[in-house]
């Protein structure tokens, strides 16, 4: 069965089996947390409202939100209090709407980007719903700031538990059943079309979108998880907006006053294509992958310094 180019995530590349984490206590605990978040009625209602709000805005409606300046200042105050932030090549950021494509190492990444990007055009985050709404302070901030396009998906830790339960770990059967019952996969054609309409509507209104084309957290500093998801290229091609590659460096392992680097690349500019062909999509993905690889350091070394508040900060944004 062939897939429509109007459905960015449903294609042969995105259907590849994800690399599952090892079955450790941490993996099992994360899967348990995921089920708890999936069953949280308050969080689910906020996710539903955020999606409705994004959809209404994309269709031309108004949205009660704070200014991009205020949102950036609040985040910048928080993040700069906790970390040392280094920004490189910010002059490369276009003044027009763009699709911002960054590597992804930690759940701080979208907040770090919003703290350093210009407040105008206003940026919307296309990100994992449960991760964005899993803590009270995130819920309050995002309800106040808006600009979220929540994507419901199953986590790799949950997939690891399901796989383990099917291959002899009977003690995980109950947890695996709870995952399959309560965790939405978010990969229906209807949902993909809805997300595409929202993204295209945001670009049409002159605003920008942040997404992470790896589709999941990376495992190693300065290394991309490939292949990149095709949605990033399809969204951009259909809208005719440039892709701005961004390298985030140092965010995988957080501690107080660590240096985090946000390194902007040159915008990738191309002709608009309402129904992009497979070769156009792949060519753009290849160009984006090369740009991100060039921006990442070739010899990253984790600093050897005291890791104050290490556990707290790594779980603060989790």
The total of helices stands at 12
Structural class based on helices, strands and sheet pairing:
alpha/beta
The geometry reads as globular
Q: Tell me the major beta sheet.
A: 7 strands, mixed
Uncertain regions spanning at least 5 consecutive residues: 1-16
- The amount of helix comes to 40-55%
| Order of H and E elements | HHHEEHEHHEHHHEHEEHH
List keywords for this structure.
12 helices, disordered N terminus
Explain this structure to me?
By secondary structure, the protein is α/β, with parallel strands linked by helices. Helix content is 44%, strand content 11%. It has 12 helices and 7 strands. Strands 1-7-6-2-5-3-4 form a 7-stranded mixed beta sheet, sandwiched between helices. The radius of gyration is 19 Å and the shape is globular. The two termini are 38 Å apart. The model is unreliable at 1-16 (pLDDT under 50).
């Amino acid at each position: 069965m062939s897939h429509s180019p109007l459905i960015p995530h449903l294609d042969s590349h995105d259907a590849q089996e994800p690399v599952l984490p090892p079955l450790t206590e941490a993996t099992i605990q994360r899967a348990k947390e995921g089920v708890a978040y999936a069953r949280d009625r308050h969080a689910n209602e906020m996710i539903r409202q955020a999606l409705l709000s994004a959809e209404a805005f994309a269709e031309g409606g108004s949205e009660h939100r704070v200014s991009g300046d205020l949102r950036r200042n609040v985040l910048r105050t928080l993040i700069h209090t906790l970390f040392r932030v280094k920004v490189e090549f910010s002059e490369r950021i276009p003044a027009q709407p763009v699709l911002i494509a960054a590597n992804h190492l930690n759940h701080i990444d979208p907040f770090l980007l919003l703290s350093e990007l210009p407040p105008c055009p206003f940026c919307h985050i296309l990100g994992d719903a449960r991760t964005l709404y899993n803590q009270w302070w995130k819920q309050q901030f995002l309800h106040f700031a808006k600009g979220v396009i929540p994507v419901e998906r199953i986590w790799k830790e949950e997939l690891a538990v399901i796989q383990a339960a099917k291959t002899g770990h009977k003690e995980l059967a109950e947890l695996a059943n709870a995952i399959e019952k309560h965790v939405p996969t978010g990969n229906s054609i209807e949902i993909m079309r809805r997300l595409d309409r929202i993204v295209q509507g945001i670009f049409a209104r002159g605003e920008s979108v942040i997404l992470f084309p790896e589709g999941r957290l990376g495992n190693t500093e300065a290394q991309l998880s490939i292949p990149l998801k095709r949605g990033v290229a399809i969204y951009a091609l259909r809208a005719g907006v440039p892709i701005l590659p961004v390298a985030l460096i140092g965010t995988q392992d957080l501690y107080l006053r660590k240096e985090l680097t946000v390194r902007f690349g040159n915008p990738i500019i191309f002709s608009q294509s309402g129904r992009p062909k497979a070769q156009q999509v792949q060519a753009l993905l290849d160009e984006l992958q090369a740009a991100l690889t060039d921006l990442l350091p070739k010899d990253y070394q984790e600093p050897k310094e005291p890791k104050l508040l290490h556990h707290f900060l790594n779980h603060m944004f989790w």
